[in-house]
């Protein structure tokens, strides 16, 4: 059976860097043809389409679809067990259109090597069983007019469809949309780079303190050092625990070593 899917993003974020996952509020549009639901025009008035609510939708067959990379794993997208609002339309020839509004919490592997000058690739994966032929609709993704990508700029969107093979149950059909996001640097310029630069410059004032006043020189530099470390710790702690040294780590270590040299 052919099943067509498209998405409409309503709101993106926040991206939880500590848990390496993000949230998105979206509409899921699903379309398929079921001849059993075709209207018999000979025994009824000529109805072009029939709007149905969640009660009637629970009585008809729906393709088993689920978000493969949801955290935690959720029920089928079109199942009443998945929180959200659902409605649909059945046309006279038996074509079914369903829209489901829900929130997805999905995993996104973060590459923090160049953080906060990084580019991340996050995706949404939709799976079904081997008897369903999943495919994207002609316009697979819609964005609302006031949609924002949280603290990112959208660089590229890629749509894929294929199969994923599980050894015990065989191949499963999968649709995937991947969006490449570049982080906005404005926040980090104001809250990280500018303050740490000022801390380094302020530590230079120790050169204008008389040489005999060593305690004053040490107190000034140590206070600057502690303030610098405290101000950058909150942002650094928001990153996932990893062995990779990020660009932010190099910047912090450079500023710390420069301040330390003025002791």
Automatic annotation (TrEMBL):
Molecular functions (GO terms): chloride channel activity; extracellular ligand-gated monoatomic ion channel activity; ligand-gated monoatomic anion channel activity; transmembrane signaling receptor activity
Membrane topology field: Multi-pass membrane protein
One Pfam family linked to the record: Neur_chan_memb
Domain called Neurotransmitter-gated ion-channel ligand-binding: residue spans: 2-184
Primary residence: membrane
Annotated InterPro entries: GABAA/Glycine_rcpt, Neur_chan_lig-bd, Neur_chan_lig-bd_sf, Neur_channel, Neuro-gated_channel_TM_sf, Neuro_actylchol_rec, Neurotrans-gated_channel_TM, Neurotransmitter_ion_chnl_CS
Location in the cell: Cell membrane; Membrane
All copies of domain Neurotransmitter-gated ion-channel transmembrane, residue ranges: 192-256
UniProt entry keywords in alphabetical sequence: Cell membrane, Ion channel, Ion transport, Membrane, Receptor, Signal, Transmembrane, Transmembrane helix, Transport
GO CC list: plasma membrane
Family: Belongs to the ligand-gated ion channel (TC 1.A.9) family.
Protein name in the entry: Gamma-aminobutyric-acid receptor-like protein
